[in-house]
């Protein structure tokens, strides 16, 4: 029995859907990783432009580099210069 083109097309679609289902978590993880990387680069640029001393800049950037999520959160909470608005 020779498979018809429609059967081959349906089997190919089922295979593609199954492959997309299994790779959805890696896609989400890849997107989250890209967002974290972009935020870390923005923070590093902000650190370079800040008025901190050279050693402070190097330490903050190393902290963000070695601990991307925790370093970014700690920098945003504690490392940025805050202006007091009254």
TrEMBL record:
Entry keyword annotation includes Cell membrane: yes
Transmembrane segments annotated in the record for this chain: 28-48, 60-78
Membrane topology: Multi-pass membrane protein
Keywords, comma-separated and alphabetical: Cell membrane, Membrane, Signal, Transmembrane, Transmembrane helix
Subcellular location: Cell membrane
Signal peptide positions on this chain: 1-19
Any one of the GO CC terms: plasma membrane
Domain of life: Eukaryota
Residues covered by the Cardiolipin synthase N-terminal domain: 38-80
InterPro entries (alphabetical): CLS_N
Main localization category: membrane
Protein name (database record): Cardiolipin synthase N-terminal domain-containing protein
Species this protein is from: Rotaria magnacalcarata
């Amino acid at each position: 029995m020779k498979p018809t083109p429609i059967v081959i097309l349906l089997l190919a679609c089922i295979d593609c859907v199954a492959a997309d289902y299994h790779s959805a978590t890696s896609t989400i993880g890849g997107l989250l990783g890209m967002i974290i990387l972009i935020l870390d680069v923005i923070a590093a640029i902000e650190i370079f432009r800040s008025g901190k001393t050279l050693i402070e800049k190097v330490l903050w950037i190393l902290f963000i580099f070695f601990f991307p999520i925790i370093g970014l959160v700690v920098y945003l909470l504690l490392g940025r210069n805050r202006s007091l608005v009254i």
